[in-house]
Recover the amino acids of this structure.
């Protein structure tokens, strides 16, 4: 089950569970659309994987399967992989 992390690892922008602007890699590193495109060029700086749109969990399922509240913010680590 996806964690649905609450914010961008680069800029700490809020990314609620229903945000169409959240992108993730296969390890669920989470970035906003702006950082993923402009800073990271669609590649996760942590694992080198592709960043794709995070699915939106139906609102009716969030009660039983809530989004994570654990924020990961590491702006110094948000450089594209060379």
């Amino acid at each position: 089950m996806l964690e649905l992390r609450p914010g961008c690892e680069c800029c700490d922008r809020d990314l609620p569970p229903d945000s169409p602007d959240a992108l993730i890699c296969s390890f669920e590193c989470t970035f906003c659309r702006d950082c993923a495109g402009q800073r990271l060029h669609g590649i996760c700086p942590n694992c080198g994987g592709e960043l794709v749109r995070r699915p939106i969990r139906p609102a009716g399922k969030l009660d039983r399967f809530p989004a994570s509240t654990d924020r990961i913010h590491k702006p110094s680590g948000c450089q594209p992989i060379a």
Summary: The CA atoms of residues 62 and 80 lie 33 Å apart. The beta strands are 22-24, 30-32, 52-53. The longest helix spans residues 33-39.
